[in-house]
Amino acid sequence: QVQLEESGGGLVQPGGSLRLSCAASGSISSTDHLSWYRQAPGGQRELVAVIKSVGSTNYADPVKGRFTISRDNAKNTVYLQMNSLKPEDTAVYYCRALRYTIPAYDSWGQGTQVTVSS
C-alpha cells in the first residue's frame, strides 16, 4: 500500500511562490501517474496537474504557465512549483498516486493548505 504525505503549504501574498512536496512510501514505479488536486472552500476537488513520466505532463487551464509539476523517482517524491500565485489559488492541495496495471492502486495524501492573501 502506497502512503503519501504532502508538505510545503502555507500563507503567501499574491504574486508569491510556494513549492509543494509529496513523499511516497511503498513501491512507486516511474510510470505511475502522480498528480496534484485542489479543493477550495465550498468547491469540488479539481485536477491541477499530472505527470505520467518524466516529460509527460498536463495542467489545468487556470494554472498553465504558472505551475510546474515534477517528480524525483529516486526519492519517490512529486513536486508542485507554484509561481505568480493568486487569491483564487487558495485551497487544500492533495497529491495522488495511481497505477492502472496490476498491482493497481489509487492513493491520496491528507492535503496541505495553501492560502494566498495580502
Instruction: Give the overall shape, derived from the CA principal axes.
Output: globular
User: Average pLDDT, to the nearest integer?
Assistant: 94
Percent helix, as a range, is under 10%
How many helical stretches?
Answer: 0
Radius of gyration, rounded? 14 Å
Count of distinct strands: 11
Task: Please mark out the parts with pLDDT under 50 across 5 or more consecutive residues, or reply none.
Answer: none
Largest sheet features:
7 strands, mixed
Structural category is mainly beta
Query: What portion of the residues fall into strands of 2 or more residues?
Result: over 45%
| N-to-C order of helices and strands | EEEEEEEEEEE
How far apart the termini lie comes to 40 Å
What descriptors fit this protein?
118 residues, mainly beta, seven-stranded mixed β-sheet, four-stranded antiparallel β-sheet, 11 strands
Q: Describe it for me?
A:
The chain has about 120 residues and is an all-beta fold. The chain is built from no helices and 11 strands. The strands form 2 sheets. Strands 2, 4, 5, 6, 9, 10 and 11 form a 7-stranded mixed sheet that branches. The chain has a 4-stranded antiparallel sheet with strand order 1-3-8-7, with no helix packed on it. The model has no long low-confidence stretch (mean pLDDT about 95).
At a glance:
By secondary structure, the chain is mostly beta strands.
Fold topology:
Layout: E1 3-7, E2 10-12, E3 18-25, E4 33-39, E5 46-53, E6 56-59, E7 67-72, E8 77-82, E9 91-99, E10 105-108, E11 112-116
Parallel strand pairs: 2-11
Antiparallel strand pairs: 1-3, 3-8, 4-5, 4-9, 5-6, 7-8, 9-10, 9-11
